[in-house]
Amino acid sequence: MRYLPHTKEDIETMLKVAGVSSIDDLFLSIPDDLKTKDGIDIPEGLSEWELDTHMEELASANIASKNYKYFIGAGSYDHYIPAIIPYLISRSEFMTAYTPYQPEVSQGTLQGIYEFQTMITQLLGMDVATASHYDCGTALAEAALIALKKNKKSNKIAVSALTHPSHRQIIQTYISPSGYEIVEIPYTKEGLTDINALKDMDDIAGIAIQSPNFFGNIEDLKTFKVVADEKKILFITSFTEALAYGLLKNPGSFGADLVAGEGQSLGISKSFGGPGLGLLAGTKKQMRNLPGRYIGKTKDANGKEGFVLTLATREQHIKREKASSNICSNNGLNAMVAAMYLATVGKIGIREIAQQNHDKAMYLKKTLEKAGFESVFDTPFFNEFILKAPAGFKQKRIGLIKNKYIFAGICLDPFYPELKGHYLFCATETVSKNDIDQLAKEVQ
Fold first, then answer.
1. What is the pTM of this model?
2. What CATH homologous superfamily does 65-79+347-443 map to?
3. What is the largest CA-CA distance in the chain?
């Protein structure tokens, strides 16, 4: 954007219109003791060309993220985005669309959400899906609240210790003001949620299990469903890598009551941590408990097909005290991106991408083990896994970031102190065999 400075004549004209004689007169309402006496110590102004050169010099100190190779995931994943996605989503009719406050004149927005919800239910194997959540953490917190409000006899919800640490914090932030509590389910030496510990837990309103879990391992969701049914409580599952269900059986096939997940992998760039896309789906039985909105397809009096805002449990549409969610954005743009991505790659494409993720992660794990890393869990995983690093890796990792533009795993010390010196690695379709071989060579 060009900077066009005001001339002396421009300033005098504006002051005259404002009815003052000088710029200082514009600030007479500010007490003198609050005004600076010595002025502000800032550099002298630059010409446009000098400023351009200065900004380029500053920018050259940074490295564009596309120049890095990422072997990290932990809830935000590096995937190829088809070129058609950024082109389509930049069109004004998509970019400027927001919440359908006047559904009858928002047919394009309504259809976009309808298609999104339809594809998400197919991906997750659920009956209904909403379109009103910021990220997986907020979607999972909403699911936890549903379970707690449904079960009036308990103020506790059991959450796996292998649920993403940030998501557990978000749940705590959501529920603690209402007097609810989280009971953490420990994990086993196999890197899986301890089903036996869960069986011994009483007075809980629901259970929440992430699969693939934070360690990347695939949980046996069927066994948790059995326990949930025995205790007559809601069974909630979550995930951070939506593409995992290109290979894995979806949560609906295991009888999940509610499913919360992150949709960032569906055509949305990482963008240094956001925005994400919260997915929340459920069975028909939970439809009126879910926050957000549902879009339906119908016909008008003339038999013409159209889309309608069927249900909306937000305070903009119903009485505030009856609203099940006060989130004020439906992430419409990101939901549209996800719908475009799913429609572009299709079922076969999702399966092929998921297969690449799994196969490359397997190759990465075997290659790093040959380079001196130790395997921790002998458990099936998708595209993430944990390894114990050899001595000296911590410093090598810093050098790889600075000198080779490689992010080699995430240290688990801050999240799981008992796993000191262990790292969570990830591989997606964006890394090649040569990238993996180079990483192994650098860390030996």
1. 0.85
2. Aspartate Aminotransferase, domain 1 (3.90.1150.10)
3. 81
